[in-house]
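Researcher: I'm comparing several assemblies side by side, and this is the next one on my list. It has 1037 residues spread over two chains. Same procedure as the others: predict the full complex and return the structure.
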Amino acid sequence: MTTPPYVRLAVALPVVLFVWFCTLIPSVSGGEILVWETAWLPQQGIDLDFAIDGLSLLFALLITGIGAFIFLFAGEYMEGYPQRGRFTLFLVSFMLAMLGLVLSDNLVALFVFWELTTITSFLLIGYSHENAVARRSALQGLLVTGAGALAMLAGFVVLGQAAGTFSLREMLADQQSFEDHPHYTAVVVLVMLGAFTKSAQFPFHFWLPNAMAAPTPVSAYLHSATMVKAGVFLLARLTPILGGTALWMETLTAVGAVTAVYSAFVSLGKSDLKQVLAYTTVMALGVCVMFLGSPPVAGQGEPSRGVLAALAFLIAHALYKAALFMIAGTIEKATGTRDLTELGGLRRAMPVTFAAAVAASVSMAGVPPSVGFIGKELLYTVGFAPDAAAWLPWAVFLAASPVALVAMVLVTKPFFGPRPDYRKPGREGHWALWCGPAVLGAVGIYWGLSPEFPFMSLLVPAEAAVSGHSFQVEQPPWQSTGEALVLTLVTLAAAVLGFWQREAVAQALAGLRRLVPFTGDRAYDATMNGIAAVAAWQTRRLQSGVQRHYLLIVFATLGLSLAVTLWIKNVVPWPVRLAEATFLDWSLAALVAGASVVIIRSRSRLLGICALGVVGVATALIFLTFGAEDVAMTQLIVETLVTVIVAIVLLKLPDFRNEVWPSGPARLRNGIVAVTVGVSVTLVLLAVTGSPPQPDLREYFERNAVPGGHGRNIVNVILVDFRALDTLGEISVLAIAGAAVFALLLPGPRRREGVPTPGTGGAAVRAQAWHGSIMNTMILRETTRRLVPLILVFSVFLLLRGHDQPGGGFVGGLVASIAFSLYAFVCGPQAARGILRADPRAVGAVGLAVAIASGFVGSIRAGVPFLTGQWGTVGGLSIGTPVLFDVGVYLVVIGVVLTFVLGIKEQ
Amino acid sequence: MEPIVAVMVGVLMAATVYLMLSRNFVRFIFGLALLSHAANLVIFASGGMTRARPPLIAPGASAPLPGISNAVPQALILTAIVISFSLLTFALVLAFRTYQELETVDTDRMRAAEPSSAGAAADAEQRAVD
């Protein structure tokens, strides 16, 4: 497998960045804050502002410094893996996102980078995506940290609103206290959820050991040295803004202590090298969180030793854990296994790796001289401080002793003892594999010998950023007290004792593990299965695949929501005032209601069609009675067309003789829903008509119809001028419906055999059948031939007078369609196409084009908005674009209706 | 008149719902036709129903005399009528073509796109297990 060259060259990026960040150390440790500002969404107060203070510089150096060795290591370690380019892309993306996270000054930008690290972590854990375990672990990490991040975002939003800014610097400069803010508790809890899930605090820790499914460079980089420390970083970052309260301190101390002690003991029971390292990582994160909860310092001149201890421990951990992970990867690569029980005797075969392992383990165990020793000394010193809880040093002791024991196992088991038969050579590998562990291990020892530089240049400035004030350090901050040294010795003694009695410790642990009723991993599984079960259950309940069940849900929801709203609002006027209802009103209402019942009960299609016609005509009469001539005309003509088309189609469908009704209970249920909807609609209408409608709109149209719209039929002026854009939308819908019907009627493949296929040969047969039909009589034919031109002339008359008198494009088009339809029924559809002289689809398309073009006239000539009416005089006749628009409507209606009628007729 | 129309529309809506919930596509189409009448009448009644003259302006006048009907709901209904006509026609053609393909108008037996309820339940179980 060939490796693209850029995979190995990628190491240049962290190296360059690391060197650049190093050049910033002098100015930042002098108290300066370097700022880069880029506007992103300034209206929302969201900007890509980056600021480098002591804390962000410490993390940036960790990310790029350790990153350089990881990139170097990965270049060799990933040899033989597929898709190296993709891996490198993910790793680089992660590094940049992580840098963005620690350098962001804006909370929202910080959240975005935070989620980018979550996503790159997901991609890297699931890198071996053909492995089901890797996929599950990737998804678990994504969901756990992603859910926490959403809570955190909510906390950020509330915090940003309380502070009036999303900028961390502005919040700090404000010196404002959020302790008394009503939402303080909510903000703290939400932000902590984000930090605890990211930094794998109990009970959310379980995703981190599972993330070991990732390739080893990823585990070393993301899941021990950098990304999982983002939660610690965030808590440190927000300490000056949110910290100092009992809630903050007690929660951090308690959660951190439980996490540290629990995971330290769990790590003892693991034999997979990476699992051991993962659980000790969780322990270290717990310790950092625990000590971030230290009480703030009283005076201005003193550094907070708790925070300093947490940061020192963090940097020590990053150094030795990255080294140990890479050593684990090197050993696995050399021997083919990373199970502690299968390893041994590698001391002579892998001398450099052994030396690096010794150096890293010394730091991990807290043995002098190492930076790990100084870190642990500081922890104990803070634990024995007068303002700390009395149990604090003992919690550290309980967490540190098992980890020291683990360090002893790590340095002895793979390297000493008898050498088993390995599947692989079991020799020292490429220099890129052991270079990183050796250098990082050496740095851990060197800084233990001369702590001046890391403390004064890195840790104290970082602590100053967390404490929120600068100070002069008078005594070396790495000095510890006598009691701390004693407890360190006790810790090591306990570890040695445990190492000597390994078997007894293992048995005791196994007994303890049986006491734990369930793990976070199981809870995660239970949650995921629960979600899937609820989804399956509701899908089974709602998605039956039966059309009437869907409709039942829709109608029941409609009826109930209307009824409940009416009940709550209590707007139905009672008693109803029934003014001036005439005999005609009652008769029409009775006709409509009676015909509806007839349709339900009819056992014949024809009776149903007739009753439908009765409803339509009675409705038209209601319109006519109450001054809506245009509507009544249109309704009557549409009703005629509907009745004819419905009759043609329905008579081709089976009759009601073998009809299957829903079962009795289902019919009762349907009836109840139907009555609920009906009653609700009645009540809504009573409520609506109980008060007179708002007259503003109506009066505007009445006042402006003649001066603005040059028309005397207000309805038509609204349609073609004031609200022409609506009408354009509606005729477009018409055209689309016409296209859909045309597509449905195209002769397509028939899935079932035995159904007559209308094909080319069918036309002649149909024509023959046509000549034998009763419609084809001489009198009817001759009458139609003379009537059709008259009807067409009348339709044009309706169209042209529509702007001033009842009429217009809609009704004119419908009348013309009736003429052509009549001709099609009497003389056959082919003959109707003949007198139309054009495809009905083309007529519709031309109509739509005319309507749209009329709208552009004003835009082009006068620069007015689309569809603004333009009027002029041509030969003494007042002509306007709305009339042209109405011609378009007329043509669309003819085109679409004839597509329907001729299409159906030809089937 | 409005209370009478309100009750009448209620009857229309109830008939619509009952017809659409039947298993027969033909009755469903009857329901669809009634639904558009009901909707148009709701719009009409909401605009106020008065025994008035049509909303026309006499020649020479620049504004209508008082006592004309409300033009706004009329304009809305006019387009709604034509739209619902095209929807109804589309449904009819769909019913016709469906009958040609499946030889049934019983909506419970139109299962080409949706699995049967037994199959759906089994699928859901399978997904839950996965």
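Model: For your comparison table: The domain at 2-51+69-129 of chain B is CATH 1.10.287.3510 (Helix Hairpins).
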